[in-house]
Amino acid sequence: MTRATHRARAPWPTRPAVPDAGAGAGTAPTTGTGPATASGSPATASGSTVTGTGPVTGTGHAACHHGELLQGVFLDADGRRCAGLVTLPLAGPGSRADFVRRPGTPPESLTVVPDDRGKAARAAGLAVAECAREAGLPPSGGQLRLTGDVPVGLGMGSSTSDVIAAVRAVADAYGLRLAPAAVARLAVAAERASDPLMLDARPVLFAQREGRVLEVLGPALPPLAVVGCVLGGGAPVDTLALPVQEVTDTDVQEYERLRVLLRRAIGSGDVRLLGRVATASARRAQRVLRHPEFETLTAIARRYGAAGVQIAHSGAVAGVLFDPAAPGGLRRRVHACRHALDAHGIPTTRTFTTKESPDGPAHRRGDRPARPHTSRRPSRLPAL
Questions:
Q1: Is 165 strand, coil or helix?
Q2: Would you tell me how many other CB atoms lie within 10 Å of the CB of residue 11?
Q3: What is the pTM of this model?
């Protein structure tokens, strides 16, 4: 076993595989969720090794996010320029993957349902090669099935969520759990750039094109109440069609200044300062995104005492950030903000916090899909 893996556990229930003609009639599927042995060879929950001929099912899950708090070009420890971002975590929606590994089939015999998830398919193929090598087994094909409730095209990391869930499901089918750095490397190889959804909820500055953490900004974000909304009517943003902006030394200096301020805001729990950083980052992104409602969004945030706004720098989702500890009645300000956004043609989506409440999930009254015809299951949202 290398440092890229550690003892596997089963954090999610494993659904039984559905035998098909290629698996052999009457073959009982085996689940690959048991712990790895001390030597690193995978083992099933019942103690038998996963070297049998029957299909083996693994599962994986990954959350999404709500756009970025900061995104730009920064300097790494060697002084080299790196594109980087800090995402705003969102509890609830996510992607689930079930991978049925079929020993004895060629690794290129890998199907994906739905069949339009090309990035997840590439990630699964890469994960099969790596996990088979780690487990000391021949790579094999199988079927990857994806389900989830992350709206597509809004900049919430739907493709990365699929990719990470797929990698985790493949690893689980081999009785392994890959370290976050290994998952990040595979995710970047599969989709060229990746959100840091393979990490925990700690705020990190992440080099999305390289799959590495530039800086851990603190142990956790301060508590935020976020009124989510969508700009541009919720139309997906084609990031490949966006104009390419030349990044100057002055731009990098400004991004580094915002990085320092965000680090200070997180370290001190200063929601107001965090809101200023997120708003400044969103305003700089306007040079490319050019959302016509942006000035209205920021004006509404000021009117109702919000700390600032955040947006997806590669999508249409946005949020108004409130400090739950600020005086003035949080529920009243949130309600008034939602009403004003809707009245100005900026559809509101969900209101959530960055800190789970001990009272459990909030009532989801008024919580709507992020855009028309976007199907998603009801999700547990942190209470205000």
A1: helix
A2: 12
A3: 0.79
Place of tokens 């556990």: 9
Question: How far lies 56's CA from each of 48, 107, 108, in Å?
Answer: 12, 14, 17
Say whether pLDDT at 180 is over 70. Answer: yes
> Residue 189 in contact with residue 179, Cβ under 8 Å?
no
Taken in order 71, 75, 76, 82, the sign of the CA dihedral is positive
How many degrees, rounded to 5, is the angle at CA 308 between CA 306 and CA 310? Answer: 130
What's the whole-number average pLDDT of the chain?
81
Give 128: exposed, middle or buried? Use CB within 10 Å, 0-12, 13-18, 19+.
buried
Helix (H) or strand (E) segment spanning residue 121: helix 118-135
Q: Is 232 helix (H, G, I), strand (E, B) or coil?
A: helix
Maximum alpha-carbon separation in the chain = 66
Strands (E), the chain: 5-6, 30-31, 56-75, 81-101, 110-113, 142-148, 177-178, 204-207, 212-216, 225-230, 308-311, 317-322, 348-353
Burial track 107-127 (b if 16+ CB lie within 10 A, e otherwise)? eeebebeeeebebbbbbbbbb
Strand partners, 90: 64
Q: Which residue has the higher pLDDT, 334 or 25?
A: 334
pLDDT tens digits along 115-150? 999 999 999 999 999 999 999 999 999 999 999 988
In the block, residue with structure tokens 């890959």:
178
Phi then psi for residue 276, to 5 deg, are -65, -40
CB 208 within 8 A of CB 96: no
Measure the CA–CA gap between 205 and 71, rounded to whole angstroms: 9
Confidence of residue 384 (pLDDT cuts 50, 70, 90): very low
